[in-house]
Design brief:
The chain is 40% helix and 14% strand. By secondary structure, the chain is of the alpha/beta class. Strand 4 and strand 5 form a beta hairpin. The longest helix is centred in the first third of the chain and has 22 residues.
Length: 317
C-alpha cells in the first residue's frame, strides 16, 4: 500500500511539474535571445514567382517586405560558395554535372522554366536573370535581411567558408543555418556556435519523443529554430489517385504528431522560432498561424503577403 501511494504521488508530482513547466518554461530555462522574428519567409527566394535561388527572386522578395530569405548552398570546384538547391545541375540547367565538379565561371545558366517543387503541376518562367549567384552576392545585396541557409553537402570546407562569409559580413545575428542531417548541424555548431542552428531530422524525432513523454520542459535545447513540414500538404503535391492508403495514413499520423499547438507554444515561449514549410495555399497559411507557428515559408511571397495583410498577421502578435 505504501509503495503504491509513493508511486502515485511521484507520478502525480511529475505530471503536474511537467505541465507547469510546459506552460511556463522560463521558470527553468532562460529565454533565448531573438535577434529577429520572421513571419514571412521566402522559400528559395520565392520559387513560384521567380526562378528559384536567383538574385531576381531574392530582390523581389525583399522589395515585397519578406522577413527572411531561405536558400541552399553548395561548393564549386574552385571552392566558391554558390546558392543552389541541387548538387547536380541537370534539373535546373539541363546539364548533367555536379556543382562540385564545375568551376564557378563555368556554371551554366538556369533553364527558362523550372518546376515548383511544392506546387503540383506548376512551373515558373524566369526573366533575364538565370545566373547561379554566390552567397556573398546575397549578403552584399541584402545586408539587413535575415537569411536561412541550408547547408546541402556534408563538406567541411563548405561549412567553414559559409561561416567565414557570415563573420566577414557581420551577419551572425541575422543568419540561421543547418540541414536535415544531424552530422551537418553538429559540424555547423562546432564551426561557429554564434550562428543559430536548426533542428536536424533526428533531433526533431527526439524533440517529439521528449514532448509526448512530458520530458521536454526539463531538457535544455541548443537549437533556436524548428523548421518542419506540414505533412497534410502531401495530398496537394501528388495526384490523389496515386496516393496509397498506407501513404495517406502515414501523412495523417505524421501531421497529428507534428502539428501540435502546445509544442509550438512551449518552444516559442523559450525563444525558439517555429517555421512551417512549404505552404502555398491560404488555408494552410491560416492553419499554421492558428497553431502558433512563428512564420510560414512559401514559394509565393506575394500570395502570403496579401493573406497576412488581409488577416492582420503582418505585425508580430
Amino acid at each position: 500500500m505504501c509503495a503504491a501511494v509513493y508511486v502515485l504521488s511521484t507520478v502525480t508530482g511529475y505530471v503536474l511539474t511537467s505541465a507547469l513547466l510546459m506552460k511556463c518554461p522560463t521558470l527553468l530555462h532562460r529565454r533565448k535571445r531573438e535577434n529577429f522574428l520572421s513571419r514571412h519567409i521566402s522559400h528559395r527566394g520565392g520559387a513560384g514567382e521567380n526562378l528559384e535561388n536567383t538574385m531576381a527572386a531574392f530582390k523581389h522578395a525583399v522589395d515585397l517586405g519578406t522577413d527572411m530569405l531561405e536558400l541552399d548552398c553548395h561548393l564549386t570546384k574552385d571552392e566558391q560558395v554558390v546558392v543552389s538547391h541541387d548538387a547536380n545541375l541537370r534539373r535546373a540547367t539541363g546539364i548533367n554535372a555536379d556543382i562540385s565538379d564545375v568551376a564557378y565561371a563555368e556554371l551554366p545558366p538556369y533553364l527558362c522554366k523550372l518546376g515548383v517543387t511544392f506546387q503540383r503541376e506548376c512551373f515558373c518562367e524566369g526573366g533575364e536573370d538565370k545566373c547561379i549567384p554566390l552567397l556573398k552576392d546575397v549578403f552584399d545585396a541584402f545586408p539587413n535581411t535575415p537569411v536561412n541557409i541550408d547547408i546541402k553537402a556534408n563538406n567541411n570546407t563548405l561549412i567553414k567558408k559559409v561561416s567565414e562569409l557570415v563573420v566577414k559580413y557581420d551577419r551572425e545575428h541575422l543568419t540561421v543555418w543547418g540541414n536535415a542531417r544531424n552530422q551537418i548541424v553538429k559540424k555547423c555548431y562546432k564551426e561557429n556556435p554564434q550562428i543559430p542552428v536548426l533542428f536536424s531530422f533526428p533531433r526533431v524525432l527526439q524533440l517529439l519523443g521528449l514532448f509526448y513523454t512530458g520530458l521536454l520542459p526539463f531538457v535544455p535545447l541548443k537549437e533556436q529554430f524548428l523548421e518542419i513540414p506540414m505533412p497534410s500538404i502531401i495530398t496537394k503535391l501528388k495526384d490523389p489517385e496515386g496516393l496509397t492508403r498506407g501513404l495517406r495514413i502515414a501523412a495523417w499520423l505524421a501531421d497529428r504528431l507534428l502539428m501540435r499547438k502546445a509544442l509550438f507554444e512551449h518552444l516559442t515561449a523559450r525563444g525558439i522560432q517555429v517555421y512551417v514549410w512549404v505552404l502555398n495555399d491560404e488555408e494552410d497559411f491560416q492553419r499554421a498561424f492558428d497553431l502558433g507557428a512563428t512564420g510560414v515559408m512559401t514559394d509565393f511571397p506575394t500570395r502570403l503577403k496579401d493573406f497576412m495583410d488581409r488577416n492582420g498577421f503582418s505585425k508580430l502578435q
